[in-house]
Design goal:
Layout (H helix, E strand, L loop, with lengths): L7 H6 E3 L5 E4 L12 H6 L3 E3 L5 H7 L4
Antiparallel strand pairs: 1-2, 2-3
Length: 65
């Protein structure tokens, strides 16, 4: 049986909270911010939980977390 490895791209994008939920950051907040409104940029702050449909896939990418 080969070694289980963590998908490093997933480990950089997702973090597991102490309760077991997985958090992610918002998209569309990296560049080309001048044309976006202040309200839009403000609402993209912070982190949110991933959708329930994606939990199984993300957990498979992060076996040791």
């Amino acid at each position: 049986m080969p070694k289980m490895k963590t998908k490093k791209s997933a480990s950089k994008r997702f973090a597991v909270r102490p309760g077991g939920t997985i958090k992610r950051s918002h998209a569309f907040k990296r560049h080309i911010l001048t044309k976006k409104s202040a309200k839009n940029k403000r609402q993209l702050r912070g982190s949110v939980s991933i959708h329930a449909a994606d939990v199984h896939a993300v957990r498979a990418m992060l076996p040791f977390v």
